Amino acid sequence: MNKRQVNLLKSLIIEDEYLPIKYFSNKLGISDKTTSKDLKEIQTIINSTGAKIDKRRGLGIKLYYTSSQLDVLNSKLNKMKVSIGDDDLIHRRIQILLNLLINTDKYTTIQKLSDKYIVSRTSINNDLNEMEDKLSKYNLKLSKTLKGTKIIGSEINIRKALVFTIQEYAKINPNYITEYQNIRHEELNINQINTILNHETTSFFENLLNHIESKLKLVIYEPYYTNLLTHLLIMTNRIMRGNYISSNSEVSDVVIVRNNDLYNIAIYMIEKIEDKFKIKVSKEEVGYIYKYLTSIGLSYDDMKNKEDKKHDMPHVHFTNNLIDIVSQMSHRNYNIRVTLYERLLLHIKPMLNRVKYNIQIKNPLLKDFLKEFKEEFLVIKIACMLVCNKLGINMISDDEVSYILTYFISEDEKISETIKIRTLVVCHSGYGTSQLLSTRLEKAFNNIEVVDVIASNSISNMDLIDIDLIVTTADLNIEKSFLLVSAFLNEIDKKNIKNFIDNILESKRKSFSNYHIKNIEIESIDDISDIDEKELVYIKNNLYICLINSLENLNIQYITEKDETGKRIFVINYSDYKYLSKALRKIIREFVTEENINEKH
């Protein structure tokens, strides 16, 4: 058993009641599907002890065992040598997948892979089954014959899968580019590639991209730089092995050149690569590189050209619609934020090219965004989906959504900096020390606006409804919160005030999302037959959302399939974006932020 399965078995032993699979999934941070697979393997392993995992519909699962069986189980756990950890398992699967993608002209065998990675044939079979799901996303298949196993599919799809796999590898191996080269060299005769060393090969492409930046007089930022570098490495390695993009592939469609400078750069890069590696690159490859260049966020003077704008209106429509919808969903007028519009416009133009050409980018901070900005991420994701549907564009990936989210988060921080904290200063006398305190407050905090300075005995006559912060040198008998400080405003006072201001700003930011959110009900229903699976929006684990634009706002309908591992679907009938936003936040707070899903729904 691996470490995850050992922890699952220990959890089963500890719990003495039926619990849903979701409970164990959340506890271990894995999917329900993985938990179900692990349960089957655990049952097989513990069969000899007589212990049994019992499943009951509507209740969940429970491990049954006697005292003597428990002794045997504990003995097994103590003696058990835990197999490779999750990271090692991921590492092995990525390495196997990379090898298969690099060597699409060769068969390999399960026994060969089993010997190489020192694991059982069953483990390799499980690895290959896992890979088939990933490969299907790129219209690739695993061919399993008497000769062995290899990947079959078009050259362009193989390259797309390679780019994705290498980017996944980056999460567990920072030196993934060099590692990719190492794997390639293990499979090739070094003489066949002109004895080019890993470091030299990578350095050549890095220098080439640096030269391109100089020619264009701009910087290619991450993740676009790494994405382009990875593509060039893959393209060159594939061509050196005799793998070319066919003339009838999707990439060979007529390339409409709207930027001659970029197209000439693509030709220049190909010529340099041909000269360095003594290979011949087809015109289809030039078009492919050109598409990459249009998809990496470059900006030039000719973007201002009217003809260019005429062709590229979709990014203007997308940006305007997105800002308008997010403004309504956030109760914040982003439409007047000119800088946000301009920055988003520059980002969305190449993003739509990536969507058009099916070029994927990865955001290494995606998990952090999902953890720290759950509500904001879902709001932006739904807003993007609504715009994509309206403009007839394929839905963008979560990685793309997270990059768009950064622009709105950044803008929120700028807005927060301009918000003035309406502050009332209170002292015993109402003058003297209060004036000193007032001056020191405004000097220490540029977002504080002292609206009045009063004596403590006058506080009962003040209307405090519009006051954000009360700073006083005297104790007050009022219901509203206040901060008691010294007249000289020492460092401890400043720290307390800063924390208080941070809480005020956070409260202001969330004030709309909290407004009337408790009035939104979630009602359970058995089934809705007319739900289209393709219209479901994935949230987390088995949670999905179905949006229905209707004439009125209705309670959220919550559907749970009878199967323990089935989808949990929230149907939101909405007539306006404000309600939609509140409904989304309600779902996030009650079903995603908690460790366990609230079963009462």
Provide an overview of this structure.
Keywords: Activator, Repeat, Transcription, Transcription regulation, Transferase. GO terms for molecular function: protein-N(PI)-phosphohistidine-sugar phosphotransferase activity. InterPro entries: BglG_antiterminators, Mga_HTH, PRD, PRD_sf, PTS_EIIB-like_sf, PTS_EIIB_2, PTS_EIIB_2/3, WH-like_DNA-bd_sf. It holds the Pfam family PTS_IIB. This protein is of the alpha/beta class and 601 residues long. The protein folds into five domains: 81 residues, Orthogonal Bundle (Arc Repressor Mutant, subunit A); 207 residues, no CATH class; 106 residues, PRD domain (PTS-regulatory domain, PRD); 91 residues, Rossmann fold (3-Layer(aba) Sandwich); 76 residues, no CATH class. 54% of the residues lie in helices and 11% in strands. It has 22 helices and 13 strands. The chain has a five-stranded mixed beta sheet, with helices on one face. A four-stranded parallel beta sheet has the order 6-5-7-8, covered by helices on one side. A two-stranded antiparallel ribbon has the order 1-2. Helix 20 links the parallel strand 5 and strand 6. It starts with a helix and ends in a 9-residue tail after the last helix. The C terminus is likely disordered.
